[in-house]
Amino acid sequence: MLSIDRSIVDAIVAHARRDHPDEACGVVAGPAGSDLPTRHIPMENAARSMTFYEFDSMEQLRVWREMDDRDEEPVVIYHSHTATEAYPSRTDISFAGEPNAHYLLVSTREPDTEEIRSFRIVDGVVTEEPVRILDAGVDPHAVQSYMFGQSPATVDYECSGR
Amino acid sequence: MAIEVRIPTILRSYTGGAKVVEGTGDTLGDLLTDLDARHAGLKARLVTDAGALHRFVNVYVNDEDVRFLGALDAKLNDGDSVTILPAVAGGAFGFAAAAAIAQHGAAAAAARGASVAAR
Fold it and tell me: What global pTM score does this model have?
């Protein structure tokens, strides 16, 4: 399961919308070992393509070094698909090189709703996982879960029992 | 001649979990051969059967991407620092198309390298 703050998801979606119809990509760093994404880093898509994304190698070196210096790791690596579903392509699977990362995909093919899904990709094996969106600003115990790619229009609310 | 090599998480199974290892070599290719003697299998994850640097990794000498320094022929000096990172790429397109784009990128990088060398 990926737990991620709503403000970060909103920023990722805004980035994907801004770059649409090109694919957008980036990282959310977090303290090493915490599995908690805290620092959103939008990256440039060096491919500037509607069907392909690629981090600029020099920007990546800078960002990865900075994470190392801050004792962080890439907790989330995200990109958008702009005309297809939010599911890893064969290309995504071939390249996936961070075994500890959550690979978050956002589809912007619908103008009004985004499909947001998260995957682990290890040794070429894709495993989908639920996304739990934390509403820190409202109530730390309230969560909204996007289970397996439901669009935000159809989510169920989970209550904290209070 | 000792060169420090930073290993990404995904390749640390070859280095007993070590983040940093040391090796020697006059070129990146020599260095990887030297490392492979102690960390068997590492080189095959970085170099294709055809003897080219793998598309799925970025290798840097100090602050430069080796694709602009001659790739496996990049010259190394004592005290250099080599960093290996997984390339982050993908997208909706099929792999054949991505490979074509990658080749185009490599050709563009080679052309840039040639123009740098010509200066």
Answer: 0.79
